[in-house]
Automatic annotation (TrEMBL), chain A:
It holds the Pfam family BPD_transp_1. Belongs to the binding-protein-dependent transport system permease family. CysTW subfamily. Residues 59-265 form the ABC transmembrane type-1 domain. InterPro entries: MetI-like (IPR000515). The keyword Chaperone does not apply. Keywords: Cell membrane, Membrane, Transmembrane, Transmembrane helix, Transport. It comes from the Bacteria. The lineage of its organism: Bacteria, Pseudomonadati, Pseudomonadota, Alphaproteobacteria, Acetobacterales. It is a multi-pass membrane protein. It is found in: Cell membrane. This is ABC transporter permease.
TrEMBL record, chain B:
It is found in: Cell inner membrane; Cell membrane. Belongs to the binding-protein-dependent transport system permease family. Coiled coil: none annotated. CDD domains: TM_PBP2. Its main location: membrane. It holds the Pfam family BPD_transp_1. This is ABC transporter permease. It comes from Falsiroseomonas tokyonensis. It is a multi-pass membrane protein. Keywords: Cell inner membrane, Cell membrane, Membrane, Transmembrane, Transmembrane helix, Transport. The keyword Transport applies.
């Protein structure tokens, strides 16, 4: 219940609450509503989930790319976090900068860099041809390969932050003691470090997976319009085909998928781990 | 006792990952200084002609200026609303403020494509499509989470007894805010402002839906450039952006160090 003396403090919350309701929640609620009312009231848009092959193909492509992206980002992120967590404090600062700089650099700049490198006349193909290793340029971008390379590049920093936070909670004396007692590096890692870092690994997995599901820019630029993921597909339905019902239906499915993933994993991991490290 | 350090394999693979993160971004620097007229590494020598093209182009300059103004207004909205909200939630600290805080995090959790689609229709009704204020409001609202997170972190380190003492000695709520709470959390607010600014400055998905001609931000121009003509001027723009963002991040780090140290 609201206490009387708290009234003033509640007034501080009010502007943000009103802004958020009027300009964030309302437009999104409208998306949910349209998916049930256009072109005709009812569940006809949702029927497409079971009947339309193209809808199913988009969902499967998205899931496949997201799972692959999450697995690779976790692997690379883990390698990086492990190195950072065990580095000495001054080296740690530099390593963390190496993670934070890409995190905050515009996603457009990064996609542009990948296009420069991977396209037909790109630097990778030219170097390989110049060295005589290949005779025909490789198809490295504007396909699923390009999307995954670009997405993993975007997601690794997001994977590092929660993993690093949980690795830092591991008592370094534990590792030193095990070493003193004669355990090998591999044993220390497998028996002590890995189990203690699992909560962070799981939190990072949830974060990367839900961010990947609705990712628009990188798949659109590196997929070249041939491999469609849900976000780009939604954009296409709304902007080019004016099929509001279908587009908003998929948007609703996307939001529900994300919230369900969060709800399932909030029983397993502390959500503060997932969203706590954002700005740090 | 010796601290446990990573082995050779772990060190080596971490370097490989770091190179994967940083190398593709750094490659745009030599490409932007190419002497060729197409996207490639410099052949005969370095040239700044593509920077001159960008900085001499009224279109690019207009987009940069417009993005900057939008980001300033959006940051103002996000900082004002987000800071007050974080303080209120911190002081009341009940089950319902936890819900409010979760509500404030929604823009990070829900994909911007969903919001952009909703806003496209919603703003059409309010006559805010392709308007400066429309984009500024959308960026401001979606910037609130960054401010709420950084300010909440700063408040966690703030001793609530200071606030109680001020109130106990008869300070009003606004006096307490102005003279006791805000000065102590100023570095957190500034961090939040920097992140909210970068958020707006880089935002593209929302802009693709709610702006078309009158509002043509820098990310929008870059997007068109990547899709239509891949020329070295794009690399020059990319380098300028990277320098700008890195500068803001280093500023944030310097502020944090001053606060912590």
């Amino acid at each position: 219940m609201m206490r009387r003396q708290d009234l003033g403090w509640w007034l501080l919350i009010l502007p943000a609450f009103l802004l958020m309701t009027a300009f964030y929640v309302a437009p999104i609620a409208q998306v949910l509503a349209i998916s049930f009312t256009e072109p005709s009231p009812g569940l006809s848009n949702y029927e497409r989930l079971f009947t339309s092959e193209s809808v199913q193909r988009v969902i499967l492509t998205t899931l496949r790319i997201c799972i692959l992206t999450t697995a690779l980002s976790l692997l690379l992120g883990y390698v990086l976090s492990y190195r950072i967590a065990l580095a000495n404090p001054s080296a740690q600062r530099w390593w963390i900068l190496a993670v934070l700089v890409p995190l905050w650099i515009s996603v457009l700049v990064r996609a542009f860099a990948w296009v420069t490198l991977l396209r037909r006349q790109g630097l990778v193909n030219e170097t390989l041809m110049g060295a005589g290793l290949i005779t025909e340029p490789l198809q490295l971008v504007w396909n699923e390969f390009g999307i995954v390379v670009g997405m993993v590049h975007y997601m690794v920093p997001y994977a590092v932050l929660p993993m690093l936070a949980s690795m830092r909670e591991i008592d370094p004396r534990l590792l030193a003691a095990a070493r003193g007692l004669g355990a090998s590096r591999i044993t220390i890692f497998a028996k002590i470090f890995l189990p203690l870092s699992l909560p962070g690994l799981l939190a990072a997995g949830v974060l990367v997976f839900i961010f990947s599901l609705g990712f628009y820019i990188t798949p659109a630029l590196l997929g070249g319009g041939k491999t469609l993921m849900v976000a780009e597909w939604i954009g296409l339905q709304i902007l080019d085909l004016l099929r509001w019902g279908l587009g908003t239906m998929m948007a609703t499915v996307l939001v529900v998928a994300i919230l369900v993933t969060l709800a399932i994993f909030s029983r397993l991991v502390d959500m503060k781990r997932v969203f706590g490290g954002g700005g740090a | 006792m010796m601290a446990h350090r990573p082995g050779l394999f772990a060190r080596g693979s971490a370097w490989v990952v770091a190179l994967y993160l940083l190398l593709p971004i750094s490659i745009i620097i030599p490409v932007s200084m190419t002497d060729q007229r197409f996207l490639s590494l410099p052949k005969e020598g370095l040239s700044l002609q593509h920077y001159a093209t960008v900085l001499g182009s009224p279109e690019w300059l207009a987009s940069i200026w417009q993005s900057f103004l939008i980001a300033v207004v959006a940051t103002g909205i996000a900082v004002a609303a987000g800071t007050l909200c974080a303080i209120g939630c911190w002081r009341v600290a009940s089950r319902s403020t936890n819900l409010v805080r979760a509500l404030m995090l929604l823009p990070i959790i829900i994909p911007s494509i969903v919001y952009a689609v909703g806003l496209y229709r919603y703003f059409a009704g309010l006559d805010l499509l392709d308007r400066f204020m429309g984009v500024a409001i959308a960026h401001g609202v979606t910037g609130i989470p960054y401010v709420v997170i950084t300010v909440s972190t700063a408040l966690a380190a703030f001793d609530p007894r200071l606030e109680q003492a001020a109130r106990g000695m008869g300070a009003s709520l606004s006096q307490t805010l102005r003279w006791v709470i805000l000065p102590r959390i100023a570095p957190g607010i500034l961090s939040g402002a920097i992140f909210a600014f970068i958020h707006s400055w880089d935002e593209l998905v929302i802009v693709l839906f709610i702006a078309s001609r009158d509002v043509f931000t820098l990310p929008r121009r870059i997007w068109d450039g990547i899709n239509e003509n891949l020329d070295p001027a794009m690399a020059a723009v990319a380098v300028l952006l990277v320098v700008f963002t890195t500068g803001l991040l280093l500023l944030d780090r310097a502020l944090r160090r001053r606060r912590d140290g």
